[in-house]
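Hey, quick one: can you model this chain's 3D structure?
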Amino acid sequence: MAFLIAPAAIALVAALLAAAISIVDKIVNNYGEVDISINDGKKVIKMDGGDTLLSSLASQEIFIPSACGGRGTCGACKCKVTSDVGPHLPTETPYMSKEELSDNIRLSCQVKIKADIELEIPDELFNIKKYKSKISSIRDVTHDIKEVTFDLQGEEINFQAGKYVQLVVPPHNKVKGYTQRAYSMASRPEDKNLVQLLIRLVPGGIATTWVHTSLNEGDEVELVGPFGDFFRSETDATMICIAGGSGMAPFKSILYDMLDKGETDREVWYFFGARTSKDMFYLEDMRELEKKWPNFHFVAALSEPEEGSSWDGETGLITDVLDTFLKTKIDPEKTREGYLCGSPGMIDACNNVLSKNKIAPDKIYYDKF
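Sure thing. Here's the predicted structure for all 369 residues.
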């Protein structure tokens, strides 16, 4: 029994110590009022110091992208700090290139405001808003992916197809505070009063577990956005799109936006991979899109089709299917661009295939999650 009690005791002591340090810091280190100067003084915020730069800006309705909700695990909340706030922390350096380190790019969730601070952020972040929404529908599109539609209750959101929002997750079960997670929008930009997300259940995931087990139609939920730089180029190049699972979301938005805007002269090949038929979805939607758009080609593939199933599509890894089509069916004489959405491993594998088929790295765009 002692070997069970000892680790529990150590964990309890560590938790109490962390809480005590936080309380002492707030009491002893009274940083007083500080100035946050943004973009050479174009905007100056006066507020009490002591919180992180990410949280301080958010309290003033200035939202820096943060896929992990400020836990320092995503590396998304970068900004340039032009004043001295001390050296980079070990929690920041894994997410920084040499150029970013020398340019004093920082993770805003790791920078604590102890004195006046100066920073630079893209002007577009001033247009980021927090939206109060109500869940209008929740639909299972696979065994582990829910299509969730958020009614913005009269407000409008303006975004480029391919961008994402951050879902504000409230305290629940053992999760004590608010956190945020990033999800690409699957809705059409012309549907300005709603946002649709595809949320796949991740075992142990703070946000996905809440969505799949606790969220109900009629619930009120906050969204922050839009964010992101994943969107189609304004060229006539053939688009080679590759995704799997919830990576469907930005492409659904992009494809229907192109249809809505009459951009159907552009050739698009969309490769979507799943493991089994229970992981495949939106097949009918994509087939209907093909009927309306002769230059759109949807190529679905199962890597492990069930024995005896009626699946009549492609089989094998989506990278192998992609390679075959690039070599045999997609005109190599036309300019081609790659658009990828998925896990880092999937994106790296697809990158290799595209590069081997002479699609330049600067013509490959991706959204990793």
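One thing worth noting: Helices lie at 2-28, 53-59, 98-102, 206-213, 248-260, 283-292, 318-328, 344-356.
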